[in-house]
Amino acid sequence: MASIAEMEQKGQGSPKGVLEKATSSHEGNAKWLHAHYDPYSALYTFSSCIALADLHGDGDNKLIIANLGTGKYDMKLKVYKGTVLMTENTIIDLPTAVCTFFMDTHDPRTPAVAVASGPYIYVYKNLRPYFKFTLPPLDVNPVEQDLWNQAKEDKIDVQVLKEMLESLRADGSEGTLTVRSLRFLMLDPEDMPTFANLHKHSPLKRQTVITCMTTLKKSHSEEDAISCLVIGTESRDIYILDPEAFTVLTKMVLPSVPVFLDVTGLYDVEFRVVVSCRNGNIYSLKKGSKAPKYSIELSSQPVGLQRMGKNVVVGCMDQTLQCYTTKGKRLWVLTLPANVMTMELMDYKTRGFKAIMVALDNCEVHVYNEKYLVNTIKTEDIVTGMKFGRFGREDGALVMTTKGGGLIVKILKRNSVFEEKDSRPGPPAAQNQKLNIPKKTKLFVDQTMRERENAVTMHRMFQRDLYRLRLDAARSYVKALETSMTPMSADPLEPLKLSATVNGIGPSFQLTVNLQNTSSATPSINLLITFQYDEKLYQLQRSSIKVPLLVPGLNYAFQTLVECISDKAIADTIKVFVLRKGKSMPIITGNINMPVSEAQVVV
């Protein structure tokens, strides 16, 4: 069986002109091959109604799409082999979700296709109708039942029936009314008597509809293991169905109507259901729990929900992408450049790479590795539905349906590498890494309590010590200025700078004194350099050096030899004084720490 790219090269699929035009417009993205684009496929669907599966066990995955048609008619289940329509089946009502699952262990191992539509789940085996599951009926409101019974016996007229049903709906019981009553209230007054006379003799039934559906592995985690169906309903319930007998195994109750489902784990061992509801909250349910334990309150209504490891990533209507833990802690929030249309999990098992794909209404699909944007895909139209997985014989295929009814197929290049950093300019990734903060010990807690109880006293002691430190520093600075113990002159009339270096290993050293006039225009005259040292240790060739006129800005070097006359291997400090002739107070002073002299070798 040929791959999608090979089929396109042979001319199968869309017209050649459309394909060449689409390929040339996407040469900029080097990570994806543009395999197919047909703007006239007339496919109007969402991500929940798209699936990829090997329906015949031959290793060639087919594309399964539940087409919404016009919304009132032309709803069909379409199966594509490559880019060619293989089969199609008519669906009676609007589809809400499509899933493929293994319902038995018979050979050959071929999955069944489940289509959720209204209150029913249509199961197809080998692309043929196999079974229809109906949701359990709900209890009818007793007041509503009594009203229709009275209308049946002509005890009340149509006007009274309308007023009583409207009062029930105003009391907040709209979600508990049957479809018959809701349709009755939607009619014009002149059509109500005909509708009531036609249906009042029929038994009153209250049926809910399916809003979302996914699968859950039953006892094994292999790809071809038996799976259970997990469905969310308009009546705020979650049902887990047995894949063989299609009976309800578990029922869970939610505070609101579920719209997105994500399930992990095994039914027979442990599983967790993460549900996004219409009230803008996300709930987490575990095995054995009848009601949600954790709740996440979003900033706006959710548009898509995907799970990455132990975290939940949700796209909202306020153009944000948010990440939470299953316990409700928010990890990060990203502001997107446009509104979110749909989301899909990119699980590229060949490279072990997982990412979140977000379709925006600016004709772009962003690929996020955690919070970092690693790739951007440009599309010809706004994407409303997408599915990533194995299509044909290609593992990294991305199938997208557009707002205008088009079909786009892209293939991830096998040598593509997604860098684990943000492709957008900004601060480095290391700036966003969390610090490894150790856990609080008992000593830390006790110290915190002590600081809290003695805060005033500790603050006063700190201020006292700080003032004392500042006082000691000021006194030392004034003393240094008064005694000219600094290498730079503090006198504005004598702006000098002194530095000294010692060269040699002993017993003879060369002492170099560098003197510089730091004034802007005034030269320095009548200066003298003298040394103070221990005469038992050292002997200087020149103990006094006359300094010529110092031009401002120039560095003057003065050298003398120092002879170490002691054999005790000790060192001392030599002080350098810069004096003005006729004054005993030095202008500046420098301390030179002499190195230990090497022993004199006699040959």
Task: Give an overview in words.
The protein has eight helices and 36 strands. Among the domains are: 142-200, no CATH class; 496-593, Gamma-adaptin ear (GAE) domain (Immunoglobulin-like). 16% of the residues lie in helices and 40% in strands. Strands 1-28-27-26 form a four-stranded antiparallel sheet. It is of the alpha+beta class and 603 residues long.
Annotated CATH topology of the domain at 496-593: Immunoglobulin-like
- Walk across the major sheet and give the strand order: 1-28-27-26
Taking the sheet with the most strands, its summary is: 4 strands, antiparallel
- The level-1 CATH class of the domain at 496-593: Mainly Beta
Q: Write down the overall mean pLDDT.
A: 84
The number of helices is 8
Work out the radius of gyration.
42 Å
**CATH homologous superfamily assignment of the domain at 496-593:** Gamma-adaptin ear (GAE) domain
Calculate the terminal CA-CA distance, rounded to whole Å.
Answer: 95 Å
Q: Which regions are unreliable across 5 or more consecutive residues at pLDDT < 50?
A: 1-28
Percent helix among the residues? Answer: 10-25%
Oligomer: single chain
What structural class do you assign from the helix and strand content?
alpha+beta
CATH architecture of the domain at 496-593: Sandwich
Proportion of beta-strand residues: 35-45%
Q: Could you say which overall geometry the principal axes of the C-alpha atoms support?
A: elongated
Number of strands: 36
